[in-house]
Amino acid sequence: MNKFLFKQIDNTGLSLFRVVFGLLITLEAFGAIATGWVRRVFVDPDFTFNFIGLDFLQVFVGEGMYLYFVLMGTLGIFVMLGYKYRIAMFSYAILWTTVYLMQKTSYNNHYYLMVLLCWIMAFLPLNKRYSLDVKFNPSLKSIAVSQWVKWTLVLQVGIVFTYGSVAKWYPDWINGIAPGVLLQSKSHYYLIGDLLQQKWAHYTLAYFGIIFDLVIIPMLLWKKTRLLGFYLSLFFHLFNSIVFQVGIFPYMSIAFALFFFTSETIQKRFKLKKEIYIENEWMKPKYNTNIPIGIFVLYFIVQLVLPLRHWVIKDDVLWTEEGHRMSWRMMLRSKKGVLKIYTLDQETGEKSRYDYKKMLSPKQKRAIATKPDLMWQLAQKIKEQEKKAGNDVKVFFNSKVSVNGGPYFQFTNDTIDIASLDWNPTKHSNWLFSSPKDYHRK
User: Is 339 helix (H, G, I), strand (E, B) or coil?
Assistant: First the structure.
């Protein structure tokens, strides 16, 4: 194991990935301000739906988040340039993880992937080439790195795409229904809008998505299919960027190719100084490797098991959302909900409809009707606010949900006081109705 993990390889591709990754996380931070995302998610709302148990993060909500993201963008520039790399990368990892945990109404898989990659990158020696750290301290320079650095990133990316493929193996995706729903709002696109509404386009996206996610990493690993895999990756991710506007993820995914091409190819294509490590020696570590290898193995066991947790939770994750996050369930479905909330005054016995919309931002209103954990959090907040007003109330949610354009089905049991219940992320919420046998049954 040691001889494999600590074999020395050229670090050209990995060092360039640091540059690209730094650029992308810089754009993510400054772009969040420029597009109004920070305002919509952290400034306009009175509160955010943070991960349950982390309410202390509410202290950050407000206009101070603009400066917070400016700081992140600055740190991203430091990462890109390789300046004070470890400090900058660790700092960005802490700040971005906090952003991720602070809110759940705006969710993309690349937010979670960025959390993982930021922490992984913080531990990798990727500032030893093409960096200001080397310019200011030439003794840091090295053109080689241990092989475990590359394989840590390759394994992480491989898990993302493999689970992304497996998650698509469900009827609405295979039948082209889910892709059709995702594409129906794109009819106005210049040239391709009408094409995207065709049934064949929905099936093409469905099956190409399944196959691409499953085979792209093996294709990039195998020399004979590497170039074809790169061109497919370029097409697929640029298509996703143009059609679905999914942020930096497509460009990050294209940059993953730097892990797979030879240093000779990369230096030639980018017209870099030809300086390649070819000795392939094994460098014996100066420390006991049992603990680092143990952490390495444990981390990837967690990464393999965590996306499967919904299988031990009752009912269908597509319906309940229980086990959906951190599972690489990317662009799988479209859900809409209609929600009414009622409170029952326990002193007077009066039951009345509660105007919850005044508490929420537009983005929060769209999310609340389909996500049980957000409902539970809002129920606690309503009960708390009513208690401050001198009222002891029960809180009931009446939600109906449509999946992938199908009819609306009853989602919550509106006879159960949600505010009186505890939240357990490892168990099914018994106040949710069972998933319909057919989401499209009339």
Answer: strand
